[in-house]
Amino acid sequence: MLKLYYSPGACALASHIALEEAGADHELAKIDLKAGEQRTPEYLAINPAGATPALQTDEGVLTENAVIMAYVAQAHPRAGLAPDPSSFAFSKMQSLNGWLGSSLHPALGRLMFSRPPLEGEAKDAALEMALGKLDVLENHLFVGPWATGGAYTVADGYVSVFTRWSRQAGLLDAARYPNLNRHLDAVQARPAVQRALAAEGIPTV
Ligand SMILES: N[C@@H](CCC(=O)N[C@@H](CS)C(=O)NCC(=O)O)C(=O)O
Predict the structure, then answer these.
(1) Which of 64, 91, 118, 198 is deepest in the core (most CB within 10 A)?
(2) SS3 assignment, position 69
(3) Which DSSP helix (H) or strand (E) runs through 167?
């Protein structure tokens, strides 16, 4: 059985949504990031990088949302959560997932989760950086109606994690980000996403 190590509302929600969308048999293990549980010896034995998500499989542990989501999609092809792995379209989806993880996530994370919180010029610069990344997603990378085009893929759950954070932080202005707002509403309306939110004990935003 698959076991997902996650923290409520954190980026592992993307992998969690993929598991729910796939109908994959899985269990959840909650890691309290604020309490530092990601740095206990027990958890570091699972993911030495000390971060969530981690997915325990029969063959070993996988980390990184983009990898876990692709694994789940490939292991459950009938769920149709990704293009054929041998296709260019699959790599195109992974281009977006890679950018989300390496560019948007750090930009939003710096603005929202820096400890101590950013202030003054540093906060202004982080805000400008984060909004600029959201602009790139809204105007260039997001295809529509789903993130990569006509079909829902695991990338949609991943985008929604960051637009969810952004909406909660008051960053997802309706006029500036119409595609991303419409998309977040559509993703959150999906039964699988509702199940993932309920399992993590977090609200639709
Ligand atoms: N690129 C990684 C990022 C993982 C990551 O940074 N996870 C955060 C939660 S969103 C975490 O566990 N941080 C641990 C910490 O803050 O110490 C992925 O997408 O899986």
Answers:
(1) 64
(2) helix
(3) helix 154-168
**DSSP class of 113:** H
Residue 17 has which token pair?
A: 């949504």
Task: Write down the pTM of the prediction.
Answer: 0.98
The residue to mutate among 33, 159, 164, having the most atoms of ligand 1 within 8 angstroms of its beta carbon, is 33
Question: 20, 153, 145, 19: which is closest to 91 by C-alpha?
Answer: 153
Q: Can you tell me the distance from the alpha carbon of 42 to that of 58, in angstroms, rounded to the nearest whole number?
A: 18
Q: Distances in Å between the alpha carbon of 121 and those of 108, 124, 145?
A: 16, 5, 36
CB of 101 sitting under 6 A from ligand 1: yes
Q: Nearest residue CA, atom 18 of ligand 1?
A: 64
Domains and CATH numbers, the chain: 2-80+192-200 (3.40.30.10), 88-190 (1.20.1050.10)
Distance CA 133, CA 116 (A): 23
Summarised one tens digit per residue, pLDDT across range 58-80 is: 999 999 999 999 999 999 999 99
